[in-house]
Amino acid sequence: TELSKIRNFSIIAHIDHGKSTLADRLIQRTGGLSEREMSAQVLDNMDIEKERGITIKAQTVRLEWKGHVLNLMDTPGHVDFAYEVSRSLAACEGALLVVDAAQGVEAQTLANVYQSIEHDHEIIPVINKIDLPSAEPEKVKNEIEEIIGIDASNAVLASAKSGIGIDEILDAVVERIPAPKGDADAPLKAMLVDSWYDPYLGVVILVRVIDGTIRKGQQIKFMAAGTTHLIDRVGAFRPKIEQLPDLGPGEIGFITAQIKEVAQARVGDTLTDAKRPAAEPLPGFKEVQPVVFCGLFPVDANDFEKLRESISKLRLNDASFSFEMETSAALGFGFRCGFLGLLHLEIIQERLTREYDLDLITTAPSVVYRLRLTKAAGEAEARTIELHNPADMPDPNRIDEIEEPWIKAVIYVPDEYLGSILKLCQDRRGIQKDLTYVGGRAQLTYELPLNEVVFDFYDRLKSISRGYASFDYEQIGYREGDLVKMSIMVNAEPVDALSMIVHRGTAETRGRGMCERLKDLIPRHLFKIPIQAAIGGKVIARETIAAMRKDVTAKCYGGDITRKRKLLEKQKEGKKRMREYGSVQIPQEAFIAALRMG
Ligand code: GTP
């Protein structure tokens, strides 16, 4: 396709403002699918994505409109996947900014729109849901101009649901979004935008061609990975797969090259011709590394092999997730896994539970610490080790210094919530670096220890600001910290799954919070259960679960037999999901719930 006839764009929207509905409409209007095929929403195709309303994997659809090729790119919407988003945006020249006519501009819109502006995108405001009686398009236009600071006078008024404004949107994409630039004669340079595993095709790679042409039968080289592959398919999604002879400059499409694992096709890598390579790769390649680690253990020890298989399968499709075997005194055999963030962790854990039918225990998430050990007798030099698991923390006397990873966070927040956000950052040991105003909102820059952020910072930020604050971060290296291992004891027995590394200054608050939550989460037993948080041998917080007053099961004995059997079955079921510590049964949910900070 000629460069002047190509338009590449994404859709930016707050949750529920109608992104998926609009995408489906655009596909339908341009003839991609029949009414019946449209019944299932096309762009969000994973169950979990649908239920949580978040897009995890970027997808692209090629549309045809009045002699032009329009590539519509879907982008994930969570900070854990920020790098994937940045690559998808780098593959586009413009964006549709979808705002609900009744709700107005909301938080998520902002984070994404600022990123889009940073990529110099042409932004077309679309005011959706004008069919609603409560729609106030003029008010929303003003909000877009005031809050975001872009011209909204020529916003398209639309209803994705009723099919109003769809042609106008497609026309606006053609008229207002610039065509991509590129040199057809230069050596091939294409960006790897996304990759995923398909059971029939193997690894499918989504590419945006910058210069040159990518074609079937070509020998290509991945510049960052250093590997070469023979391309066996080139094509596009419309949204059904269509094979094409090649993709030229400015085009977005997919290739396959008999690659077995997505780990070999990393997002952001540059593809070039093996025989006539480009002099330099595209800027911006970053190897995403897991930042949050936790242990995953089967509740039933017999499920270990099943867990291994399931984890290996998931890994085939997700290069940013890592795992290795781990043994724990209390939990038996399991895996130490690494994730991009807490949401990523929850997604993987949920898929294992749901798709693979596994009951799991998740241990306290942790970042990677660096420990400089004191010189042991017979050692020539002091050693530095990386600590992924609080349970492996050496004796404090053996530690010279502990370093923890820090991040630089940029937060956008409306004025009215600024005070509470500043307090949140302060409570999390943040160091304020900058505070400016952009388009009527505060832009805050903070340095924060990653370990204070991975648990629930994002959720807290969102709830404090009623969803209006946005948050983005990058790692800035390691710094020394006064860190200690906090152990949790239930009925005098340490629960290693709940031990965590904390800052000495916040240890007591964290310990108290943890004990209080566990008190609510662990059911009463026939005896009194002490719950304690301790550093070294010193108890810093404690709670007690009172004993059950009477034996509730006693009533059943000698009674109705079916009832008794039911009760026994229930108990059996319950057993499966419980772990025993010092003869105390802890429900599976307690492990995760206890880790959410109040
Ligand atoms: P996420 O996928 O959760 O981010 O949401 P989304 O932005 O993709 O929104 P989605 O398309 O799923 O729409 C959210 C809800 O709004 C659905 O119930 C749609 O039916 C409804 N909706 C979308 N467009 C319109 C519209 O133009 N008018 C009305 N009345 N409802 C709409």
Would you kindly provide a written description of the structure presented here, covering whatever features stand out?
It is a peripheral membrane protein. Pfam families: EFG_C, EFG_III, GTP_EFTU, GTP_EFTU_D2, LepA_C. Its EC number is 3.6.5.n1. The chain has 598 residues and is of the alpha+beta class. It has 13 helices and 33 strands. The strands form 7 sheets. An 8-stranded antiparallel beta sheet has the order 11-10-16-7-8-15-12-13. The site of guanosine-5'-triphosphate has 17 residues, from helix 1.
Spell out the blueprint of helices and strands.
Layout: E1 6-13, H1 19-29, H2 47-52, E2 59-65, E3 68-74, H3 82-90, E4 94-100, H4 107-118, E5 122-128, H5 137-148, E6 156-157, H6 166-176, E7 189-198, E8 202-211, E9 214-215, E10 219-222, E11 228-230, E12 233-237, E13 241-243, E14 246-247, E15 252-256, E16 270-273, E17 292-298, H7 304-316, E18 322-328, E19 332-339, H8 342-354, E20 360-362, E21 369-373, E22 384-387, E23 399-414, H9 418-427, E24 431-438, E25 441-449, H10 457-464, E26 470-480, E27 483-490, E28 493-494, E29 500-503, H11 504-521, E30 529-535, E31 538-545, H12 561-576, E32 578-581, E33 584-587, H13 588-595
Parallel strand pairs: 1-3, 1-4, 4-5, 5-6
Antiparallel strand pairs: 2-3, 7-8, 7-16, 8-15, 9-14, 10-11, 10-16, 12-13, 12-15, 17-19, 17-20, 18-19, 21-22, 21-23, 23-25, 23-26, 24-25, 27-28, 27-29, 27-30, 30-31, 32-33
Helix pairs in contact: 11-13
The structure holds guanosine-5'-triphosphate (GTP).
Family: Belongs to the GTP-binding elongation factor family. LepA subfamily.
Membrane topology: Peripheral membrane protein
Protein name: Elongation factor 4
